[in-house]
Write a structure and sequence with these properties.
This protein is mainly α. It has 15 helices and 4 strands. It has a two-stranded antiparallel sheet with strand order 1-2. It has a two-stranded antiparallel ribbon with strand order 3-4. A hairpin with a 4-residue loop joins strand 3 and strand 4. Helix 2 runs antiparallel to helix 8 and helix 7 packs parallel to helix 14. About 5% of the residues have low confidence.
Length: 379
């Protein structure tokens, strides 16, 4: 565990120190988020925060490769090369989008290519830990991998709508996913429970921690598409690696549930952005609009309409992500009944916070004033 915490600390420190440099660079090259009618920031805010986050991930994983405990995971596999190249690609794609506002089809094509990079280097959905079920063919494996990558990239990008929201949600959910992966790997491989997926997740959580002080309301920099897609790519890669590495035949009966459903936690972590994305697509198509037409009816906008402050809305989204992700992660160490009791109590608290607590007093400000939405709607 100490090795993973070191990786996390390195990623956080490098990201935190580089963000001010990237912010000045973004101002110099005019990579700024303009003030739009649906935003609350009153001056253009620099973006491209994903550049600092990428360097943080790269340095942390490079350091991890030199740690004896984790070194074997980097020396014996091409998967880390695939993760690194795919991460570099999506950061470049996101940077181009932040600078020149690419068409949706160009971004979608770039995201598909990122999935193909992962699959080519062996980060592919080949088996599911459900009675040894296999995907069945290389072509189907590539398709499943690309689908997971594109879906996750856009889910994270959709939720990047308030200061500190995306980095906080991914950091909280990633922490639960890291704990899940670490404990499950220990249960399935007691003789060697080092894990590439856990190292990637540790670096991902670290960059979120390092970026948040600069991004929390009022934000001094946005992560942009470069950062949102980087987080989505790392999350997808870790999910795929875990799915392929867990051997259910070596997991005790007490661990059957988490071993047979390794994709459940990523779904729980991304539940809020996925629900938000699906509702947005259905809502816009129902109105006869393009599913890529931006609006202000996202979940975070609705929290603001309920009377919550900017920070209050973000905190509530944090709470729901914690409840969903850690409730699933606890299946690794607790019996279902205790997990159910924990989840029930947390859900009640989250509902009370959502409906009644953390509200700001009524304000004469015009109704319908939306929150910052740094993203450009995607698939």
């Amino acid at each position: 565990m100490r090795s993973y915490l070191l990786v996390m600390l390195i990623a956080a420190a490098v990201t935190f120190l580089l963000v001010p440099i990237v912010r000045h660079l973004a101002r110099y090259i005019h990579a700024l988020t303009p003030v739009r009618s649906r935003d609350i920031h009153t001056t253009p805010i620099p973006r491209l925060g994903g550049l600092a986050m990428f360097v943080g991930v790269a340095v942390a994983l490079l350091a991890a490769s030199q740690i004896p405990y984790l070194g074997s995971q980097f020396a014996q596999t091409n998967q880390i090369i695939g993760v690194g190249l795919a991460a570099l690609w999506v950061v470049l794609l996101g940077t181009a989008d932040d600078l020149w506002d690419l068409d949706w089809w160009a971004k979608l094509g770039g995201q598909i290519f990122a999935g193909l990079i992962l699959a080519f280097f062996g980060v592919a959905l080949v088996t599911f830990p459900i009675a040894g079920l296999t995907v069945g063919s290389t072509r189907l494996s590539f398709f499943a991998t690309v689908f997971v990558v594109v879906f996750t990239l856009n889910a994270v990008n959709f939720v990047d709508g308030l200061d500190g929201l995306a980095a906080g949600l991914v950091g909280i959910g990633g922490s639960a996913f890291f704990l899940y992966t670490y404990l499950l790997t220990r249960a399935s491989s007691p003789e060697d429970y080092s894990s590439l997926a856990a190292a990637v997740l540790a670096a991902m959580v670290g960059v979120c921690v390092g970026f948040l002080p600069h991004n929390f309301h009022p934000a001094r920099i946005f992560m942009g598409d470069s950062g949102a897609m980087l987080l989505g790519l790392l999350f997808a890669a870790a999910t795929i690696i875990v799915t392929g590495n867990i051997d259910p035949t070596r997991v005790s009966m007490g661990q059957v549930f988490p071993a047979f459903l390794p994709l459940l936690l990523p779904v729980a972590v991304l539940a809020l952005p996925v629900i938000d994305m699906l509702l947005a697509v259905v809502r816009r198509i129902g109105r006869g609009q393009s599913p890529f037409q931006a609006d202000r009816m996202h979940l975070h906008h609705r929290l603001l309409d309920l009377g919550h402050s900017h920070k209050g809305a973000v905190f509530i989204m944090y709470v729901w992500t914690f409840v969903l992700s850690f409730s699933v992660a606890l299946f690794v160490v607790l019996p279902p009944r205790e997990v159910g009791m924990f989840a029930a109590v947390c859900v009640v608290i989250a509902i009370l916070l959502t409906r009644f607590a953390l509200r700001r007093p009524p304000s004469p400000a015009p109704a319908g004033l939306p929150a910052h939405d740094d993203t450009k709607e995607q698939v």
